[in-house]
Amino acid sequence: MSSILKRKRLGITDYRKRYRLLKSGIPRLVVRITRKGVIAQVVRYDPTGDRILVTVTDRSLSKFDVPLKGNNTSISYMVGYAAGKKAMSLGVKRAILDAGRREVIPGGRIAAALKGFSDSGVEIPHSEEILPSDDRIRGKHLKKDLSNNFDEFIKKLEVL
Prior knowledge:
With 160 residues, the protein is α+β, with helices and mostly antiparallel strands. The protein has six helices and four strands; from the N terminus they run ααβββαβααα. The chain has a single domain (14-157), classed as Nucleotidyltransferase, domain 5 (2-Layer Sandwich), CATH 3.30.420.
């Protein structure tokens, strides 16, 4: 049996990266892309265990009459936006991105969630170069064009 931590051995957690994020003392926007969806959480460190302040998934958007599910760029943006609105209502003014072991690809789904979170009013450090284009966020690249209903969906998320 190896003496290193199990999560490190299995390649699940990068403890050096986690330590750097925790040293800042700022809440983290944790974005995870699954096979079937998107999860965005605002997490605050606590020595007894991380405290999850906000959780929004692609499936939880159905509460706001957003009939879409999945893990495309548009859904990622809406999940990030909803998480940001909920975080603002709890007094979170700034956060830092925690993408886990995934790389943030310019124009990708994690970057879309980051843009949604930032557009909701929460201050989060990022480069404008990695954010997806407005056409991509509005779903013009999809077979089922969302651009007509996109603003309507965002207005429904405003009430958070």
